[in-house]
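#struct-pred
JK: can someone run the complex with uridine-5'-diphosphate-xylopyranose? inputs below
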Amino acid sequence: MRLSVIGCGYLGAVHAAAMASIGHEVVGIDVDERKVASLSQGEAPFFEPGLQDILQEGIASGCLRFTTDMAAASWADVHFIGVGTPQQAGGSAADLTYVNAAIDELLPHLNRSDIVAGKSTVPVGTAASLMERVAATGATLVWNPEFLREGWAVQDTIDPDRLVAGVPAGDEGQRAANILREVYHTAVAKDTPFIVTDYATAELVKVAANAFLATKISFINAMAEIAEVTGADVTQLADAIGHDARIGRRFLGAGIGFGGGCLPKDIRAFSARAEELGRGESVTFLREVDAINLRRRERAVQLVIDALGGSVFKKNITVLGAAFKPHSDDIRDSPALDVAVRLHGLGAWVTITDPAAIDNASRIHPQLNYVADRDEALREADAVLVVTEWDEYRRELDPHHAGDLVNQRIVIDGRNCLDAEAWRAADWSYVGMGRP
Ligand code: UDX
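RT: done, structure tokens with the ligand placed:
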């Protein structure tokens, strides 16, 4: 099939390359000339395992190309919209400027019977508001939310847990759903659930899933707060409740909380949309979810202050991790970086390292001391803070070896990812989050 993907950021670039890898001919379109130039060379503009390979294969085979020229879309039959929906400046609602612009610029290039498939995360009601403009060209609008996780984006796109298609009523909607089934033929052949809904349900599935995941993390972080005043251990608690299949252990990792380009902005946008719909009270709990999440960053800072006897002023603090999670160079709303910046603000000498995110972090927060080599970063530390659970710190950092590099053997495990026993056995003062 011939596909266009409009918007080649995180979602769009991965989608374009993944669709080429399953046999489609794809053109990726973006207004950013530098991004298009980089993608056209087979260079991924961000760190994502596996992306570079499928980009290069797609380009070499002639099935994948990138351009800034929207007119290239007229060659395709199915058009995916993958532009960003950031948080509005000064507000919490989603900014739909890029979605509206993408649709407006695409309209003159649509052919009758084309499919326009929205993938961006949008407030419920958006597809209905765009439908008429698309229908006027004879094309059909569907909403096909994306659930990919950074670090697993290629795998999640090619082999998703489920596919959701929000379609208009009647034969037109059925035809559109069938075309999407052909697009995702490899997943469909594996009997991946393919759920056909109306627009509103498809839009809500996406925000509900992210709201649930954020709530799960803040729930366990709330339990960590209670554990902290009672001497209980939140990691054992999570193991024990996680054995109940109705609860499940995943996303019960207590620590410094969630960040990234999706969960924080999506729960805020959901609250804002619910208010607009007169149903703010239905999701008031999401404000609490956000507040609990942000409190964990303060808590991590306080643990460092306490461990250093009441002040971090002019203390050497080594922060292991800057990305919002491992296997990513993304620092958007990164709790790791936020904690590092707060410590610097309190007068600490902060040295920070990360296997992938140093370049991005140093552009935004040049006041921190960035060191690429982990061992170099650990030298002379008065305290070590683990804030992104990369394997380089979680599995591969030997506490005896680390102990020989630092000034004082104090480690604050902001992700509860270290083996506390092993670190204590190597004479470290180990402090976890929500653990005695
Ligand atoms: C998320 C959703 O998982 C994905 O389905 C959606 O499409 C986009 O948003 P992503 O932002 O890539 O994906 O990250 P995710 O793996 O969900 O992690 C989000 C944040 O939660 C990270 O900062 C992570 O460190 C944190 N987290 C995750 C916890 O603090 N505890 C956990 O147990 C799990």
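RT: quick notes.
The chain has a mean pLDDT of 97.
Residues 198-436 form a domain with the Rossmann fold fold (CATH 3.40.50.720).
JK: thanks, will look after standup
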